[in-house]
Design a protein that fits this description.
The complex is a heterodimer. By secondary structure, chain A is an alpha/beta fold. Chain A has twelve helices and 13 strands. Among the domains of chain B are: 141 residues, no CATH class; 108 residues, no CATH class; 73 residues, no CATH class. The chains are: A alpha/beta, B alpha+beta. At the A-B interface, strand 1, helix 2, strand 3 and strand 4 of A face helix 1, strand 1, helix 2, helix 3 and helix 6 of B.
């Protein structure tokens, strides 16, 4: 009986990473699963003000491998160590996956969590979103994307950019030329590639400059905005803020907090400071308008304004608020109003959504946020790429 | 760590092992050993040891899981990996010490002998194993690269097929009757028994059996049934289903004989290494490794340990028969060696344990039965006079394919609606409902019409139906 021993070749070990493709595909599926669960993740995790390296645990569904398996009520058999065992005694953990190479037939615990950093999560979240309806304005300032563009061919380059077709063609050229020079010598002989035959794509980096944009975050900080409402509003703005920081390098962000009066605040104050008092929504809008006309003229800037409030406005302020809102909607590319009405918050207080429905501007959008789970969908309504453009109609 | 031995050393040891293997009467396929590093070993483990295997994301997932466990030192790599093929292929990790390699090689011959001789493996053409898996890999790649099919569509079918692949016939050595034979048998069964007093008795009403029903008898090979009875499937889809089914069939014997197989290999590597007359330096390491592999896992069940104990018990009982036992059951007709080889050939885990796991052994192994309560295992029975039989029954229920619920297709035209009706043969164990729901969804996708599964949920007969992407659970009265 002959036994064959195949010795180890380090080269084959390094070259054949055979599971690479399957691993890549699996990771894509994990990413997909994260994206589908983002609303839940945001609802479960308080991500406000957390730093980028924080690890978020994300339960992965959708990449489980399902089969018909037995449930929990199934007894099993184990082996005791030394010593007497008693019925009723507890031993170890519950069902483990099968040991060894045949894991497929056991239910085990197929549910698993993956850990991603907040940064990574944010990146996945914002993949499909962008500031809608960005117009060309006179001054272009915002750097949007680096792009690689083909620009001719070079004889030197890196392997991945090798142009096989051109390389082959230049070899044929050289062959023909050398045959003409010496007909007899080369006939029928091998004619291998030479270093000079190699042709590479040449690429240049291009940065597209987009028009400049400013985003105004307006938040109601009046007394009626209780902790829960503030939390929802801040979560929303935090997402918006992270989105802008991730996707756009040069977007200006202005924070405005208002109760009966409005003032421009810093990022720190915006996210962490509490206020109280009555509510004049118009004050926030007027402050925004004032800032826009002063610093960000709509002729030169793309203006985006977002406002979060519980809609509990003083009756007397409503006409003023409506007027200011109309004005704001007219000059901005998008004006979003998010109304925070937690479930069970009672029927007191008015809703501005109905009142604002008088505004005819096509770029005015309203959403209602009732629960933590609503934050992400409402956020997406504002910023989805394929948002139906009402103004096109 | 550079290994302090060469291939020639291994070959030298291999010669000595083979001599012993032949002396002991083992009968393996020709063996091939491949030296690999730990990365390659991980890959082989993920792809069931096959040099070529079709790709699917689940293998990437398995790799990540294994690699994480390995990197964090939560689990070592197995010393050995053998595949059932002719010639058999085994992988040796190059970082292992010489003692470990010798141990591994001896162990591998045990598995190899088992593959060749156990009856459950008879249905596999082991000389084609490698080629079959390679052909599958090529075909899947071909479909993925086909612009009219592509990865997404192939993956959809594979995901669904994987979910159902183990729902197939388990005892492959019993030939599956053809449809004609099934009809014939059904017709025979329906005939009233011969009655010698026909003239006196009133004639019984004869109900003709429904031979037009599809399937004639309940069908266990779900993938094949769908392949043959869903006219909407394209050829490539049918091919994928066949492929996944074939691969599952390849693994069924290994699932069926896990404890026997590991026990058998351990039983023989111990004897081979004892007979090898190892130098002192190797001997001590062998003893340490052997004990590591074969020590019981408290709370768990180590198939190596349980398996080997049973084999050793058989050897003991047949070489020094117990006089009392002989008085009751008659003298033993075979000597120990003959008995061992007979058992190796004709049993599988369930029958092996039923016949040879004695009360004494159950006590010696300190087996107990547990029930899961939340995250904990709570002991429900310990090995004493009253409950050893119950423990044994539970164990037998949980080995081999016993862990896979028996679900059969009863009717492909349920309610005259082309609804696929399946029945779970409930044996006291409920299905995990979340998994059942998702698996039904896959079944629905492949069948392309409504599906329904009858099972018991908390002792109530219920039908899980899947239509229009929604699961319905209806109690049956």
């Amino acid at each position: 009986m002959e036994t064959i021993f195949r010795p180890y070749h380090p080269a084959s070990g390094q070259r054949s990473d055979r599971s690479a493709g399957d691993r890549l595909r699996h990771r894509q599926k994990v990413r997909e699963a994260i994206r589908n669960n983002i609303a839940d993740i945001i609802a479960e995790e308080s991500i406000i003000g957390k730093d980028n390296n924080r690890i978020v645990k994300v339960p992965i569904r959708g990449v489980k491998e399902y089969r018909f398996v037995y449930g929990e009520n199934v007894p099993g058999v184990g082996q005791g160590g030394d010593g007497e065992l008693q019925p009723g005694q507890t031993v170890g953990k519950g069902k483990e996956g099968a040991q060894g190479h045949q894991a497929g037939d056991q239910a085990g615990v197929d549910y698993y969590e993956t850990e991603v950093s907040l940064d990574e999560l944010v990146e996945v979240m914002f993949e499909d979103l962008e500031l809608p309806d960005l117009d060309r304005k006179n001054l272009r300032q915002m750097e949007v994307e680096r792009q690689f563009r083909h620009k001719g061919f070079r004889k030197k380059g890196i392997r991945v950019r090798l142009d096989k077709k051109r390389t082959a063609r230049s070899r044929v050229k050289r062959k023909k030329a050398s045959q003409r020079a010496d007909v007899a010598a080369l006939h029928g002989e091998r004619f291998p590639f030479h270093k000079d035959d190699l042709r590479y794509h040449h690429t240049v980096t291009e940065t597209r400059r987009e028009s400049n944009a400013v985003v105004l975050c307006i938040m109601d900080t009046s007394g009626s905005m209780d902790t829960m409402k503030k939390y929802l509003a801040r979560s929303f703005f935090f997402l918006l803020y992270r989105f802008l920081c991730t996707r756009y390098e040069n977007v200006e962000i202005v924070f405005i907090a208002h109760h009966t009066e409005a003032q421009e605040v810093t990022e720190e104050e915006f996210f962490h400071k509490g206020e109280s008092g009555g509510t004049f929504i118009s004050s926030g809008y007027n402050k925004a308008l004032e800032i826009i006309y002063e610093r960000y003229h709509p002729g030169l800037w793309n203006v985006y304004a977002f406002h979060c409030s519980d809609g509990d406005n003083f009756e007397s302020d409503n006409p003023a608020a409506l007027k200011a809102a109309t004005e704001l909607a007219r000059i901005s590319n998008l004006f979003g109003y998010g109304e925070i009405k937690p479930l069970g918050a009672g029927y007191y207080g008015s809703s501005m959504i109905q009142f604002f429905s008088q505004i005819q501007e096509p770029n005015f959008q309203t959403v209602q946020i009732q629960r933590k789970e609503d934050i992400w969908p409402s956020f997406k309504t504002f910023l989805t790429k394929d948002r139906v453009r009402d103004d096109a109609a | 760590m550079a290994a302090a031995y060469t291939i020639e050393d291994l070959q030298e040891w291999n010669h000595r092992i083979i001599d012993l293997v032949q002396d002991l009467g083992l009968d393996p396929y020709p063996q091939e050993f491949e030296i690999c590093d730990h990365e390659q070993m991980l890959s082989y483990m993920v792809y069931s040891g096959m040099p070529s295997h079709y790709s699917h994301w689940s293998y990437g997932k398995a790799y990540e899981k294994l690699k994480t466990l390995y990197d964090y030192g939560l689990s070592g790599l197995p010393y050995e990996m053998v595949i059932n093929a002719n010639p058999s292929i085994a992988y040796l990790m190059r970082d292992n010490t010489l003692a470990l390699q010798v141990l591994t090689m001896a162990h591998v011959y045990g598995h190899n002998d088992f593959f060749k001789n156990n009856f459950t493996f008879r249905t596999i053409r082991s000389e084609f194993t490698i080629e079959t898996f390679k052909a599958h890999a090529n075909r899947v790649r071909h479909y993925v690269e086909d612009p009219s099919i592509g990865l997404e569509k192939v993956e959809r079918i594979l995901d669904a097929a994987h979910a159902l692949s183990l729902q197939c016939r388990r005892n492959l050595s019993i030939r599956k009757p053809t449809e004609e034979e099934q009809k014939e048998a059904k017709l025979q069964d329906s005939k009233p028994p011969a009655d010698p007093f026909q003239s006196v008795h009133r004639r019984k009403e004869w109900v003709s059996p429904d031979l037009a029903k599809i399937p004639v008898e309940p069908e266990e090979d779900i993938l094949l049934f769908i392949r043959d009875h869903n006219p909407q499937l394209a050829e490539w889809e049918k091919d994928l289903l066949t492929m996944v089914h074939e691969q599952a069939q390849y693994f069924i014997p290994q699932i069926e004989t896990k404890i026997m197989n590991e026990g058998w290999a351990s039983f023989w590597h111990k004897r081979i290494l004892e007979a090898l007359d190892l130098p002192q330096s190797l001997k001590i390491e062998f003893l340490i490794r052997h004990t590591q592999v074969l020590s019981p896992i408290p709370g768990g069940l180590n198939p190596y340990h349980v398996g080997m104990k049973v084999w050793e018990d058989i050897e003991k009982r047949w070489s020094k028969p117990d006089p009392e036992e002989e008085k009751e059951y008659g003298p033993k007709k075979k000597n120990a060696r003959e008995k061992l080889f007979e058992v190796r050939e004709v049993e599988r885990d369930s029958s092996f344990l039923r016949r040879y796991l004695t009360e004494g052994l159950i006590r010696e192994l300190n087996l107990f039965e547990y029930k899961s309560r939340g995250n904990e295992k709570v002991i429900s029975r310990v090995a004493d006079e009253d409950s050893w039989q119950a423990i044994k029954d539970t164990l037998i229920q949980n080995v081999g394919t016993g862990t896979i619920p028996v679900i059969k297709i009863e009717d492909a035209d349920y309610g005259n609606n082309r609804c696929l009706f399946l029945k779970h043969s409930h044996d006291g164990r409920d299905l995990q409902l979340e998994y059942a729901e998702k698996t039904l969804q896959y079944l629905r996708q492949l069948w392309a019409r409504e599906v329904a599964l009858e099972t018991l949920i908390n002792d109530k007969k219920s039908v899980l139906g899947f239509a229009d992407d929604k699961l319905t659970i209806k109690p049956v009265h």
